[in-house]
Design brief:
- It is a single chain.
- With 204 residues, the chain is α+β, with helices and mostly antiparallel strands.
- 24% of the residues lie in helices and 27% in strands.
- It has a domain at 2-141.
- The chain has 5 helices and 10 strands.
- The chain has a 7-stranded antiparallel β-sheet with strand order 1-2-3-4-8-9-10, with helices on both faces. It has a 3-stranded antiparallel β-sheet with strand order 5-6-7.
- Helix 1 runs antiparallel to helix 2 (96-107).
């Protein structure tokens, strides 16, 4: 099993701890995480990120009593200490230039108004040109989003339990699983690792 941890500084949290509502926000999170993996740790953060590669490959994000996780649709190559290279599953090398290109596409008004790569206008030598193929590949993957909340503000009996898991990000596809107790990061990671024993749902 490969585990890579990164601190997230306070000014970087806007790139990670924002609601995921669609595939575009999932793709943005993935490439920001890839950039963080390549940069390495830059100091003591206010929150943190962890990449775990086992039979699964997932990103985990932790801040206060809220955790969330998504699939990581990229391959990470490391030496004994640092991440040396990140590629797509098809073998394309993702570097800082390509990451900037992907973010430029996602943040463009054209893409926000028409979130499709089919008609996206690309100039041959523009920064977006190098990012379009990477973004297309990332968008093909299932986000596999899951979030753990300890939420005393919105607690409402069994309708909205204090501790719960939110599964899927779409308002049309999301559902909630209540938990009897608080959970720690180890339990949250183990829950999603297909190489460990299953957790069981027990209805009372």
């Amino acid at each position: 099993m490969k585990i890579i941890e990164r601190e997230i500084l306070s000014f970087q949290e806007k790139d990670f701890f924002v609601p995921i509502r669609d595939k575009a926000s999932f793709a943005r999170l993935v490439v920001c995480a890839a950039r963080q993996l390549l940069l390495g740790n830059q100091g003591k953060g206010t929150s943190n990120m962890k990449l775990i590669v086992d039979k699964m490959s997932r990103l985990f994000f932790y801040k206060d009593n809220k955790y969330f996780s998504v699939a990581f649709p990229l391959t990470v190559i490391t030496d004994d200490i640092e991440v040396t290279e990140i590629t797509t599953y098809s073998g394309k090398k993702l570097d800082f230039v390509n990451i900037s290109a992907i973010i430029s596409i996602l943040d463009s008004e054209y893409f926000k108004n028409n979130p499709s790569l089919i008609d996206f206008p690309i100039e041959p030598l523009s920064i977006e040109a190098s990012g379009i193929y990477f973004l297309e590949e990332i968008l093909q993957f299932e986000p596999s989003y899951i979030r753990y909340d300890n939420d005393p503000i919105n607690q409402n009996g069994k309708l909205h339990p204090l501790n719960h898991l939110d599964i899927n990000y779409s308002q049309y596809g999301t559902y909630k699983l209540g938990l009897q107790n608080t959970i720690n990061d180890y339990y949250f990671e183990n829950l999603q690792n297909t190489n460990t024993d299953c957790s069981f749902i027990v209805d009372i």
